[in-house]
Amino acid sequence: MRVAMIGTGYVGLVSGTCFADFGHVVTCIDKDASKIDALNNGRIPIYEPGLQDLVAKNVAEERLFFRTDPKDAIREADAVFIAVGTPTRRGDGHADLSYVYAAAEEIAGLIDGFTVIVTKSTVPVGTGDEVEAIVRRTNPDADFAVVSNPEFLREGAAISDFKRPDRVIVGTESQRAVGVMQELYRPLFLNETPIIVTRRRTSELTKYAANAFLAVKITFINEIADLCEKVGANVQEVSRGIGLDNRIGSKFLHAGPGYGGSCFPKDTLALSRIAAEAGSNLKIVDSVIEVNAARKKKMADKVIDFMGGDVSGKTVALLGLAFKPNTDDMREAPSIDIVEKLQAAGARIRAYDPASMEEAGKYMKDVLFCDGPYHAIENADVVVIVTEWDQFRALDLDRVKSLLKTPKVVDLRNIYKPDYMKDRGFDYTSVGRTY
Ligand code: UDX
Predict the structure, then answer these.
(1) What is the mean pLDDT of residues 253-280?
(2) Which of 6, 220, 329, 372 is deepest in the core (most CB within 10 A)?
(3) Minimum-distance ligand 1 atom for the alpha carbon of 262
(4) Residue 120: what pLDDT?
(5) CA dihedral defined by 279, 284, 289, 291, rounded to 10 degrees?
(6) What is the mean predicted confidence (pLDDT) over 419-429?
(7) 134-173 pLDDT, tens per residue?
(8) How is domain 2-198 classified at the CATH fold level?
(9) In the annotation, is 263 catalytic?
(10) What single string gives the DSSP state of each residue in 203-260?
């Protein structure tokens, strides 16, 4: 099959590369010439384990191409994917669909023969209808079908999520389009991945519902963690105790500093707006948005309380800045709120992150970015673990203790055990664990 992928952001680049690796001929298209230039020279604009090698392999085997000019690729394509950004629109929280609609218009003028137009970007319910109307209006003779095929990949695990998904969702009323989609995903049938064929609107809503549900799960356990601290319980044991119930499931029950990233914050907000406009408010999702935003700020208070209520003139060493490990993505990262609030309270910040310090520089001021975890800890009054990178799980604790002014650790990801840290001579606090 021939695929054109519009947009070489996270989803576009990973999906395009993986489709090429399935054996299809894929052209990734982006208007940003410097990005395309970089990709053609083997430079990947995002940090994603395994992606660089997979791109290089498929480029070398001539199944993966990067172009600024969409003409040939779209004309020849069996399927054109729209994987452009849908950022939160300033002011009203809705998803900004201008890139999606611009792509639809461009595609309309270029398709030749039956073409499946697929939205991979997370888009509000009804966007597929609008894309269809735009294509029809722009090119009344076009032979096409519009499919919703949301992507569920996680940053840092994107390739395995794409190649071994829990399910694939295909939303369309066109049987012919279903045939094309089945052919595209054929390698997954061999793994018996369930493919759910449904209507377009249902598919569009499913993506938002999935992300919102996961955000609910995280926020629920975060609130239970707060309660654990008040009543003398341990949230990790509560998580395990409830997670082993198959109806609940053990994943996404890790208490922490609140969720961040490019998807959960944006998609919960967009879903809330969709629901409000449809006259069917989602009160649970609305609360989750509010509770999570407050939680990120509250994590700075936790540090301040731990330091006896005053951090002015104190040095705080932050380990981890990205919203989660194995990515350099800083969007909506809890570290941003934590740094801001600690600085406002008079603290000096030293920080280290294995991948995101360059990005972090765009989100925070007056932070001393350090060469490694021990450099960050040097002469600090307290260490705060914000992101659970593997390398922070195996710190040389004697060295940490000798470098710190006072042996204080705030572990916002629960990667160390309270008893163990106490035995090693640390004054230690974590999230939702009183023992
Ligand atoms: C998410 C969805 O998982 C993915 O299916 C969707 O396509 C895009 O959004 P991503 O944003 O890459 O993926 O990261 P994810 O691993 O889901 O983590 C999101 C946030 O939740 C992170 O800030 C993470 O630290 C936090 N989280 C996750 C928790 O605090 N506790 C958990 O138990 C799980």
Answers:
(1) 96
(2) 6
(3) 11
(4) 92
(5) 140
(6) 97
(7) 999 999 999 999 999 999 999 899 999 999 999 999 999 9
(8) Rossmann fold (3.40.50)
(9) yes
(10) HHHHHHHHHHHHHHHHHHHHHHHHHHHHHT-BHHHHHHHHHTSTTT-STT----S---
Kindly state if the Cβ of 255 falls inside 6 Å of ligand 1.
no
For 390-410, the pLDDT digits (tens) are 999 999 999 999 999 999 999
Decide: pTM greater than 0.90: yes
Q: Is the CB of 243 under 6 A from ligand 1?
A: no
At the topology level, CATH places domain 208-289 in N-(1-d-carboxylethyl)-l-norvaline Dehydrogenase; domain 2 (1.10.1040)
Which residue minimizes the CA distance to atom 2 of ligand 1? 154
136 C-beta closer than 6 A to ligand 1? no
Dig out the tokens for 89 from the structure: 């629109």
Q: Is the pLDDT of residue 191 over 90?
A: no
Beta partners for 333?
none
Cα–Cα distances (Å) from 310 to 302, 313, 344, 368, in that order, read 11, 9, 11, 21
The amino acid that residue 2 corresponds to is R
Q: What is the ipTM of this complex?
A: 0.96
Name the residue at shortest CA distance from atom 17 of ligand 1: 154
Give 6-16 pLDDT, tens digit per residue.
Answer: 999 999 999 99
Q: How far apart are CA 82 and CA 104, in angstroms?
A: 8
The rounded Å distance from CA 255 to ligand 1 centre is: 12
Ligand 1 contacts CB of residue 261 (under 6 A): yes
pLDDT tens-digit profile of 85-105? Answer: 998 888 888 889 999 999 999
Q: Is the CB of 218 under 6 A from ligand 1?
A: yes
For the chain, give every domain's residue range. Answer: 2-198, 208-289, 297-429
Instruction: Give yes or no for residue 386 CB within 6 A of ligand 1.
Output: no
Domain 297-429 has CATH 3.40.50.720: yes
Given the residues 28, 228, 263, 370, the one annotated as active site: 263
Residue 92 pLDDT: 86
- Are domains 2-198 and 297-429 of this chain identical in fold? yes
**Distance, CA 223 to ligand 1 centroid (Å)?**
17
